[in-house]
Amino acid sequence: MRIDWLGELCCPAPVLVATADGRLVTRAADGTLVERRLTIGGVQRLRDEVFGTGLFDSDRQVRLEFAPAVSPVPHVISARTFRAWNGTRTVIVSSPILEPSEETLYKPSAARTQLDALAARLTAPESWLPLTAWAVEAPRAYVADGFRVVSSAEPVGGSPPDVDAIDWPFTTSIADFGEPLAATSQVFAPIGPGTRPLRCAALDANDARAAREALERAGAKVNDFPDGAFNTGLAWGAAGSGIVLFAQALMPDQSSCGDAY
After folding, report:
1. pTM for the full model?
2. CA 135 to CA 26: how far, in whole Å?
3. How far is it, in rounded angstroms, from Cα 192 to Cα 190?
4. In whole numbers, what is the pLDDT of the chain averaged over residues?
5. Sheet containing 2-6: which strands, arranged edge to edge?
6. Across residues 226-250, what is the average pLDDT?
7. Least confident window among 77-81, 106-110, 239-243, 257-261
8. Residues 66, 106: contact at Cβ < 8 Å?
9. Strands of the 199-204 sheet, one edge to the other
10. DSSP H/E element including 151
11. What does each C-alpha distance from 132 to 38, 124, 137 come to in angstroms?
């Protein structure tokens, strides 16, 4: 099971990932990721909670309908995407997230109400799962096994180090690192469209650490995100142009740039 939250301005971010072997990763209020572990019985309880809603028999998109005589000002609305493995395929269900003040602007939706309640229960499983459901109940910081590194050729500000100044620990140059992402790829990264297709490479934790250390030794400013991701910009080519790198921590249900999410 996976739940991604899509904000009003940017990219989907995982708020829950639960796997069949009992790993359970959730996003804390401060944006950090924590991991616990369920027993096999706990996994089944979580699964029963999901499929007991009856909302995951097939893919669906819950839509909003205006209430009668209401014409709200159009604006972007956050959303959740639920992905649940039913034994043969991944069922995808998406639903908008409304602020309490907006509820009266739209017709009630039983499905949306159910999904809101399901998300609240799944992201706070300690509030309803019994002690017997936990192999490890105490949350600990999530440590990713690997990272997905997305690069984009685009203008960069400031005075970052040149690409050629990086003692890059891989045989492939930074400019050609990874494989081009197809236009239909569902890999999201908070970087610009670039002047050529985005490229993506999957690294294990040790290689990602080596890449980061090489960037820092050259004087690149590396920016950290609460969920373990980091990014930086490098100068490349003509004045003002460069390469932006974004390293995203892979979740337990991901393995490479070829994953669907």
Report:
1. 0.88
2. 16
3. 7
4. 91
5. 60-61, 90-96, 79-85, 2-6, 12-18, 23-27, 33-38, 134-141
6. 92
7. 257-261
8. yes
9. 179-180, 199-204, 146-155, 241-249, 230-235, 223-224
10. strand 146-155
11. 9, 16, 10
